[in-house]
Amino acid sequence: MAGADLPWLKEYRVFGIPETFKPYPDQPVYDILYKTARKHKNQGLIQMDYMITYPEVKDHVDRLATALHNTGLKKGDRVATLLPTSIQFVIADYAISRAGLVHIPGSSLEPADQLQHKFKEGSPHALICLDEYLDVIRDTLRKVQIKNIIVSKLADYSLHKPQNYEPIKIKEALWWAELIANTPPNPPDVTFDVEKDLELILFTGGTTGLPKGCMLTHRNVYANAIQNGNALGRSHLLAEGVLTVLMGLPFFHSYGHSTMHCMTNEGYNQILIPDARDTESMVRMIREYHPFIQIGVPTQFLKLTQGELKDVNILGISGSAPLSRNVQEEFEKKSGGGG
């Protein structure tokens, strides 16, 4: 298609965005984290006032990838997760990639029959979840066989880590914290064809019917992270490894998942809000850590305008659905930033 038929290219030129980002890196998705861990050693993830740097995240990724490999999982096998937006989700996603496996994210808020459908269709060989979801997992395991279960407590990454881990009432299930502590970081050597090997299967219902699994390769996910990072034009180069962003998006959804990789690729500090509905925590974290950007959805920005959000000077970026002008203007007025 000729350039004249692509009117958005005019704006690309204004903001210094090239017509294409090819050639894309011939690297698997975990390279996003590895690269950032080398370049931005003091940046990282913040959860419940606990911070873990990107080099520390990489260490835990390598340990979990090793543990997954040691269970007998081989390249192309699938691993499901039932995790909120959290340090655990980020580590699990990159560890699954590092071990050459395929990630199937799930949500504890899904109806039981829909979750069972997802696991039946996706055929995961392992599942990583939070302990607070174990009732959902037990019900699911009655109808879907998943051999390897890894369980974490959200507080595993907090200022008040659990002191004891009671036996899990699921056969052969393992505690995440013990697995990380006791497994040396020695992940397997895996050869990738990044254009063909799957990294992710995201289930989406569209507008009708049961959810269908959308298959994304390592090239798909990596390219998307690079493209999203350039949405702010060449100004993103000045902010690389400097900014702090607030992430209240569910990472098990496509919007949150792609944004997670983008923010990691840019080397930003990421403030993670496990419950996307918890705008009170968002306001507290904004006041405590002064992020430059909040990435969210219209309902979050609507709730934030109804709270105490005065002069926090934050830039809001909304997606997934249209943001009304009234909400945008009210957010800009109260926050002292923009939207």
What characterizes the major β-sheet?
A: 6 strands, mixed
The chain-level mean pLDDT equals 92
What CATH calls the topology of the largest domain is Rossmann fold
Structural class designation: alpha/beta
Task: Explain what this protein looks like in three dimensions.
With 339 residues, this protein is an alpha/beta fold. It has helices at residues 8-15, 30-39, 54-70, 87-98, 112-122, 134-141, 176-182, 218-229, 236-239, 254-266, 279-289, 298-305, 325-335; strands spanning 44-47, 50-53, 78-82, 102-106, 126-130, 148-152, 174-175, 198-204, 212-217, 244-247, 269-272, 293-296, 315-318. The longest helix is centred in the first third of the chain and has 17 residues, at 54-70. The radius of gyration is 20 Å and the shape is globular.
List keywords for this structure.
5-stranded parallel sheet, 339 residues, Rossmann fold, 39% helix, 6-stranded mixed sheet, 13 helices, alpha/beta
